[in-house]
Give the backbone structure.
Amino acid sequence: MKRRIISALLVLGSAAALTACSGNEDKFVAELKAAGFSNPGEPSTEKEKKSKKIGKRTVKSSEKIIEVMVRVKGCDLEMAKVSGQSGYWLDELHVNGQEPDWPGYPENLKRDQVVKLLADSSSKPTGFTACYKPNEA
C-alpha cells in the first residue's frame, strides 16, 4: 500500500514539474508576443549547471534557460531567458547555419526596437548582411 502511495506521489510530482516548465515556456512566448514578435517558434529548454567552491565545500546549482526563435527582417534571432526570472536577451543570431557573436546587443528589446537596431549603422556580426532583408516583415 505504501509503495502505491509513493509511486502516485512521484507521478504527480513529475507531472507538476513538467507543467511548471511548459508554463514558463508559454509565458515567455506570450512575453515575446507582447513585445511585438508575432512569429515566435517553439520554445526549448536547456539546463545550465554551475558549481562554486566556498571554503572546503562545493555548492552546485542549476538554472533552466528557455530559448525561442523569432524571425525579424529575414534574420533568425534566438531569444533566451532564465526560467522564472524577468527579462530576456538575444542569445544567438543564426546566419547560414552559423551563430556569430553579437557583443553589445541590448537586452529586452521590443520588436520595433530590434527593427531599428537592424537598420542602423551600428556594428553587426559577421554574416549579418546575408540574412538582413529590409523589405521583409
In short: The longest helix spans residues 2-34. Residues 5-21 have pLDDT under 50 and may be disordered. The two ends are 60 Å apart (CA to CA). The longest strand covers residues 57-72.
